[in-house]
Amino acid sequence: MNDQAPVIDVRDVVKTFDKGLTRALDGVTLSIDKGEFVSITGPSGCGKSTLLHAIAALEKPDSGEIYINGEEITSKRDLSRYRARTIGLVFQLHNLLPNLSASENVQVPMYEISISPRERRKRADELLGLVSLQGKEKKRPTQLSGGERQRVAVARALSNGPPIILADEPTGNLDSKASLQVIELLKNIQREQGVTLVLVTHNASIAEAADRAVHMLDGRIESKAED
Amino acid sequence: MLWPLLRCQKARKYLKGTSVSFVLFILSNLMRQKIRTGLTVLGISIGITAVVALGIFVHSAKVATEGLIQAGGSDFIIGRDGSADLTLSTVTEDEIAAVSAYEEVEYVTGALIAIFGVGSSPFFLQFGIEPEALDFFEVEILEGTRLSPGATDEMLLGNSSSVGADLGDTIEIRDLEFTVVGIYDTGASMLDGGAILPLAAVQEYERKPNIVTIAFVRTRPGTDIESLKARIEDDYPNLAAAATLDEVGDIDQGTQILDAVELGISAIAIFIGGIAVMNTMVMAVFERTREFGILRALGWRTRRIIQMVIGESLLLCLIAAAAGSLLAIGLTQLVILFPAVSSFIEIEYTLNVFLRGLIVGVSVGLLGAIYPAYRAARLSPAQAIRYE
Ligand SMILES: Nc1ncnc2c1ncn2[C@@H]1O[C@H](COP(=O)(O)OP(=O)(O)OP(=O)(O)O)[C@@H](O)[C@H]1O
Ligand SMILES: [Mg+2]
């Protein structure tokens, strides 16, 4: 594993807002290996979400490069394809589309890859099974508990089989039992499917459970905890 | 109509990935704001109702006028060029004589048309013709007798006239009294809703001696009707010859005005409807900003986002077009209950007017979607995800 090139290689990325007044990322360098589980912690406003958004190609850095599997993405043209196939995203809040069922939510990213509607439904139901939500395929988000909703979001992140999962405080508003379930689920997927997992969290014990815990402060990576 | 569009490569590429579930997704987005969607549909459907109902009336009125032109055995009619309305056309007896002098003309007869309230009928059509011309106009006497030659106080009543008189009754028109001697049917709705009177009598009470409204011309077999019409118009620049409804526009500028009104109302409906839809769709895009961000973050292309916004807008307007068309049918059925209308026209529904409603609906949908789709496409995904 050590000999391999990193899956995610962030090099000296700077991202500012408000015409340079806010330096959300102030020269971040971070490389993550294939199959690694990295947690990111840090005070509110230190740039954790901005870093994930930059990796997911939702936000374009002012300077610096981001290599994914050796390919530079900040100058890539077809970002939709990259987002749809390479990255699986899980957010903290308002994650699901409220007018779609659990199964339909899981199918949303599959619209961008050419598979038949039948195949799409089949795969969505399998993924819901994987996150232990069989029988709830037709439920709307409002008919699901907070923990169940986040598991639907995890299933959706997996829908196109991405090698990387980025989770931005996916357990932020869950109680500890539901949080644990979601984290266990993500860890299992990381372990069993060899997926690279980057998890932003405020919870110290969750952060400790990662292969590597990264701490951020004021747009920089502060220290790297050894494991 | 959509089929050639779907076959076009570019369109197919653009619609790639659309499926039943995508359409259902679009529909469910509309259903999230039932009241807003309902009110928008209502607003647009009223515009479409106006367009379709007016189209139905104009078409029906044209069919009625056409029935009059083609009354009996005439090949074309002659009227005064540039008349504001068919009933305001004047042709003199000298001009009729001149037309009958053409070698190809087999028969010419004039008719003086008057329309005003008589008895309980507010717009009573009086068709003054020579009694001998009854056969030419293929007037079928259902009851009673024909007009007797030379009579000036007799009249025939159409079988769908609403004047409220019967065989043997007398009807007062202006200061003169006429006895109903027969009931007739011609198959032309305009004629059957009125009365046929001796030409001389109508000329007298209308104070139009030696004048008719239009002349009906029958040509000899084998005549080149087009060139004859052209020759007559060349020789007598004041006259216009019309064989079809389109040509009647020269004698009856009213039909041209109606066409312009139709176009104007369609344009207004598109403009106002477009603004209403734009308003609704802009609100929908703004309040769903975060969702658009999530869709983009999950890999949806801007193209699909645009498809979704345009799809919602189009679906909204298609529902409105359907509702508007149904309303228009209801409205025309209601209006035709009035004798004043039904004595003139028979309502006729053609695919064309509904197609026009559909075109207005689609235009409204596309026009109203441009700006919201542009806004949705321009959203930065990261910004949209942070949006609360
Ligand atoms: N679109 C934006 N416009 C202006 N400022 C922004 C924008 N996005 C982020 N910022 C600023 O960048 C900084 C980093 O924000 P970011 O959301 O990455 O922090 P975070 O570490 O995720 O915080 P939290 O733990 O509260 O989620 C903050 O100061 C924030 O105000
Ligand atoms: Mg954050």
Write the layout of secondary structure elements.
The complex is a heterodimer of chains A (227) and B (388).
Chain A: E1 8-17, E2 22-32, E3 37-41, H1 48-55, E4 63-68, E5 71-72, H2 79-85, E6 87-90, H3 102-107, H4 117-130, H5 146-157, E7 164-168, H6 176-193, E8 196-200, H7 204-208, E9 212-217, E10 220-224
Parallel strand pairs in A: 3-8, 3-9, 6-7, 7-8
Antiparallel strand pairs in A: 1-2, 1-4, 4-5, 9-10
Chain B: H1 3-7, H2 9-14, H3 20-31, H4 34-69, E1 76-80, E2 91-92, H5 93-100, E3 105-118, E4 121-129, E5 140-144, E6 154-158, E7 170-173, E8 176-185, H6 189-192, E9 195-198, H7 199-205, E10 211-212, E11 214-219, H8 225-235, E12 239-242, H9 245-248, H10 253-287, H11 289-297, H12 302-335, H13 339-342, H14 351-378, H15 381-386
Parallel strand pairs in B: 4-9, 6-8
Antiparallel strand pairs in B: 1-11, 1-12, 2-10, 3-4, 3-11, 5-8, 6-9, 7-8
The complex binds adenosine-5'-triphosphate and magnesium ion (MG).
What report would you give on this structure?
The complex is a heterodimer of chains A (227) and B (388). Chain A has 227 residues and is an alpha/beta fold. The mean pLDDT of chain A is 91. In chain A, the strands form 2 sheets. In chain A, strands 6-7-8-3-9-10 form a 6-stranded mixed beta sheet, sandwiched between helices. In chain A, strand 7, helix 6 and strand 8 form a beta-alpha-beta unit. Chain A is globular. In chain A, 31% of the residues lie in helices and 26% in strands. Chain A is built from 7 helices and 10 strands. By secondary structure, chain B is of the alpha+beta class. Chain B folds into 2 domains: 193 residues, no CATH class; 167 residues, no CATH class. Chain B contains 15 helices and 12 strands. In chain B, helix 4 packs across helix 12, helix 4 runs antiparallel to helix 14 and helix 10 packs parallel to helix 14. The longest helix of chain B is centred in the N-terminal third of the chain and has 36 residues. Chain B is elongated, with a radius of gyration of 29 Å. Chains A and B meet through helix 1 and helix 2 of A and helix 3, helix 11 and helix 15 of B. The structure holds adenosine-5'-triphosphate and magnesium ion. Magnesium ion (MG) binds next to helix 1 of chain A. Magnesium ion binds next to helix 1 of chain A.
